[in-house]
Structures are given as structure tokens and as C-alpha cells.
Design brief:
This protein is α/β, with parallel strands linked by helices. The strands form three sheets. Strands 3, 4, 5, 6, 7, 8, 9, 12, 13 and 14 form a ten-stranded mixed beta sheet that branches. Strands 1-2 form a two-stranded antiparallel sheet. α2 packs parallel to α3. The longest helix has 24 residues. It starts with 15 loop residues before the first helix and ends in a 22-residue tail after the last helix.
Amino acid sequence: NLRSNNYICHLSVFSRELLDKVGKFRSEYDGSQDHDMILRLTEQAQKIVHIPKLLYYWRAHSNSVAQNIDIKDYAIKAAQAAIVASLERRGITGVTVDSIKAYKSMYRLHYPIIKNDLVSIIIPTKNHSDDLKKCIKSIFEKSTYPNFEIVIVDNGSDEEALFEYYEEIKQYPNVTVCSLDIPFNYSRINNYAISKAKGEYYLLLNNDIEIITPNWIEEMLMYVQREDVGAAGAMLYYPDDTVQHAGVLLGLNGIAGHYFKNFGRNEIGYMGRLSYAQDMTAVTAACMLIKASVFHQIGGLDEGFEVAFNDVDLCMKIRKAGYLIVWTPFAELYHYESKSRGYEDTEEKQRRFMREIDRFQARWGKELRAGDPYYNPNLSLERDDFYPKNLK
């Protein structure tokens, strides 16, 4: 977030000892000298605290960058140079930085792909051959990443058209179809498919996904290849070009939910948050790239979460193990999940759903009480649009 957007900006307090260690403002970054210094300070600080109170107002006058960034266009170049320098101090080279469409003063980072490791795309499916065909077709026709395999796990299908399609895709040497005919358990089905996968990365993908961005794999892999990142997620849209997933907010409506649901595709969100990559507590497994080593380190998906919260639990375990979760809006896909689809429409499903809520609360109660670290406590947990708490 701080690389993409200097959200700390003006009012900050730091020790003189830390300032002496990193150095003061540097003239080569004039216009964005505060962004450069904050990046240096946060690299060295042992503990950083945000005070969630309104402590000052930002004055914007006619000659202020706050009013019109074009007045000081050189500030953009200075900020981009400061971000690159910050990464180079961490041993990360070859990164380029552009302004995003929403704001010139917010940035998109392009990390080079270090190695074209094998990515195993894991797709569970049952019937719905048309959905799977559209998904697979879009992967092969649009993907620019050169090294992937697809592992399809069939969960008790009885649709003849689907079995005919399985025969058809045997022509692809990098497609494997396996079968696990059990009562639906998302976690167990994916764990089983992963046992058949060969990749250094696993890309969990729903069968009702269609690729939009040709370099969708690269956009997530550029983050997950870093040592400090465990998984990454994408921007998912409903077929009507409204947001289905832009990251997961812990505590929304009690447990967890998606940010910015039903926002328009071209909307920028609260403070531009729909427009740039950032760390998140969790992302949906409808499209999630995860390091194979991290997946096995944390024990994979918990099969006690048969339907709900398995992906949020997975991300919580990734973060507990010390890795970051990154969400990027630059990997775009359609998710043909029905907006009005009812998940818990029988008494049995409702009992299962409540069991999974209880399981999640028992495991992550402390974290739920503490609040999502990527969300402001002054904002509502009853809405997904960063609306102020208690404001009518």
C-alpha cells in the first residue's frame, strides 16, 4: 500500500535516533521528499503505530499538489524514483513504476518474473460443462504465461457432455483430469487435486471463471515469487461488469466478506483502493495463487471447512506463518457466480454453515476481536464500501 500510495504523508512522528540512522529529506526527491523519507523510516522502524483519530485537516490551496498534481508533475517522477530506490535497498531490482489511471500520485509496480516456474491451475468441477469449457478455452487462448498445467478434479459428475469434453481435452499434454466422488467438500477436493499437481505454485480456480487479462498469472506471480509473500488474489467481476471480489475484509458482517461488492468496473473505490495493488488479510480461492511450499507448510486447506470460509482460514494460516497476502486489480477475470444465488437454502446447509462459523470463531476469535489490520476501526463492519461507523 505504501509503495502504491503515500497514505502517511504529512503528519508523522518518529524518533531522532531513527532519523539520524536513515537521513533527512533528500533534494533529489524534491516534490515527493516525504514519500522517500517515509519509505526509509518504515524500512528501519521496529514498530509502527497508526493512531485512528482525526488529528488534523489537510489544507488544499490553488498551488497545492492536493488540489492539482499537474502543478508539480516532477513530484510524480520523484516518487517513482523513491519507490524504485526503496526496493533496490531490499535487493529487489528491475522494477518499473507507472502512475495508475485514477490518480497520477498513486502507482502501479511491475516486478520482473524471475523464473518461469510451473504453475498448477487447480479446477474442481461437477457437471456444468459449458462453464468449464469457457474457463479452459479462455486460459489457453488468452494466457501469456508459458509454463502451466491444469488439474481438473471431477466431483461426481453425471453429465454426458462433460465426459465427452474430458475426452476432447486429452489432446493437451498439460491437462490432467482426476476424479473424487465424495459428498461436496471444497477443501478435501482441492487438497486431493493438489496431490496430483507438479507445480512450484498452485493456482486455485473456480470452474465458472473466464480470463480477461492475458498476463493474469504474471500479475499475481510477480508478488508470490517474493520471499515475504505467500499468496495473491485477483479482481473478479460479475458478468455485468460490477465487482464480485476485490479482497476480503475480516469481520465484515461478523466473520468476513468481500470489499466493494457491486461497485462498477471503472469505479476507483475509497481513496483509490480499487485501483492499486495492496496487502490484504485474505483473498477468495475462486482465483488464488499460492506458493506450493507455503501451502504444504501450513497443512493445506482445512477439510473441516467443507463449503464456507475455507479460503479465509487458509489466508489466516498463511499470515500466521509470517507471509503477506497481496490483492491486485491488474489481474482481471469474470466470475459467473450468480449474484442472487442462495447458498444456505436448506436446514441441513444452514446447520453446516453455523458449524463452520463456530469453527472459524473458535480458531480466529482473537483476530476477529482485534479487527482487520488493513481496515480502519472508524469504518463500518456492516458495509463493504469503507463507510464511516455510526454515520447515518
